[in-house]
Amino acid sequence: MPLCTITTNLPDEKLSDTFLKETSAFIAKLLDKPETRVQVTLLPNVRIISAGSLEPCLTFYLSSFERFRPGDNNRKYGDEIGKFLAEKTGLPDSSIDVGFPPQ
Hints:
The protein is of the alpha/beta class. Helix content is 30%, strand content 20%.
């Protein structure tokens, strides 16, 4: 079950329910999983400093049991997720971090 957590200092009103639905569908397609198994949690309005800056930023963590191991396609997935999030939020790539927590 892919579990996604999006933490950002963007205000809630900038990230609609459509954004959540599109993110869920994107992750399901990317991982070749049924969307009924995908969970996306959005934490907006969080106070974050990243790279010494308080500018808008976003952190995306994706966990999927036995899916992400060192040396796997994490870089490929990370690049695709980052591109998707930049397109949907308007944030530059440099303000988006994608991580895969250890299982």
